[in-house]
Amino acid sequence: MGSTSLLESEIVSLHDLVDAVASAERHRAALALATAEHAADGGFRADGALSITGWLEHHARMSHGDAARLLSEGRFLRRNRAVATAAVSGQLSAAQVALLRRTVTKPTADLFEEHQQAIVDALIGRDLPNSEVVCERWRTKAEASVPMPEPPLPERSLKLSPCGDGTHFGTIVLDAAGAAQFRQALDTARTWNGDDDSRTTRERDVDAFDSIMSFFNRNHDRPESHRHRPHVELNLNVEDLYRRAGPCAVVRNGQTLPVWTTDTLLCDCVLHRVLRAPGTVTDYGRATRSVPANLARMVIARDHGCRFCDRPSSWCEIHHVDPWYPSGVTKLENLMLLCDHHHRMIHRDRWTIVLHDDGAVTFTGPDGRTIHRQPRLHTATGPPVAA
Fold first, then answer.
1. Per-residue pLDDT at 112 exceeds 80
2. What burial class does residue 39 get, using C-beta atoms within 10 Å of its C-beta: 0-12 exposed, 13-18 middle, 19+ buried?
3. Mean pLDDT for the stretch of residues 241-263
4. Which stretches within the chain are classed as H helix?
5. Ordered DSSP codes for 140-153
6. In what order do the strands lie in the sheet with 370-373?
7. What are the b/e assignments for 328-357, b being 16+ CB within 10 Å?
8. What is the per-residue DSSP string for 288-303?
9. What is the distance between the alpha carbons of residues 204 and 377, in angstroms, rounded to a whole number?
10. What is the pTM of this model?
């Protein structure tokens, strides 16, 4: 009760809290330095202890880890007196001292002893981010001026462990080259949902990681590949092709092609022809939940990419606007492309979607917020459909 009353009387404002933290850090620095001094003079052996950490475990009821960390901090301060003086006086914070300990390595320790006063003077009064800049600059110059061992190559590894509900957790270790590729892939796949996006950086990164894996599974070249997208997409109505009255096809970037170019491309056996032809099946009703290949090409030709963002069709999945369960049907007017991230978001957060007759889409979030997206590229005479 007495301790609580003391704390309540001494720390009554945020300024008092800051002062209390600074006081605790000064005492911690003095305690660490004293621990290192006693470890050096060996007085602990009088009690039969083999080390100062063992002595502290017995007499101060400290854990071995806490005692070892205190001794390590103290040995750094004992060797670097300018740092110790600044830490005990409160000119350097505990975080700044920890930063210096990380900065100084065995090859640069002697050089740091020579430079420590100048470095301490440069750190006094600086916040932690600027202190990191000062330390990084010194470390770079120091390592360039002393012999440094070859950096060990990390042992690349990936470990995943399943939880009972299907969730997985794990660790991944990459070398510099792999890490660069990984970061670039995350940057490419990362999405932003606008000013109302409340996801943390970690959440955006893991959503991007999901998208990368989904992209590979859809587009790898093994026999079980989900679907091979066309190299060239022509959007046209078959009646215009037969009339041959003028340009009748549009490619994905909006360019209109002359008839002879269209004829040339239609001769290419690799081409997936995208046509609006009489009798083309666009409505499979409740007969199938999965989207048949010809209908999938129709959706791709019409939407070109995610209707919520700008990702291309190769990143996308086909979504039933009116959910298949309990009553949705598999037909062109009930299907649209959504990238992996926005497909998950729509289902997870229960967004509602209205696909308008003109091809526009209105998304409504659970909070009532609406987002209206205009239709993608169309042919000159109407929306494209694949045969």
1. yes
2. buried
3. 60
4. 2-10, 14-41, 52-59, 64-79, 81-89, 94-103, 109-123, 128-145, 176-189, 201-219, 238-243, 259-266, 293-303, 340-349
5. HHHHHHS--PPPPP
6. 352-355, 361-364, 370-373
7. ebbbbebbbbbbbbbbbbbeeeebebebee
8. -SSPPHHHHHHHHHHH
9. 29
10. 0.44
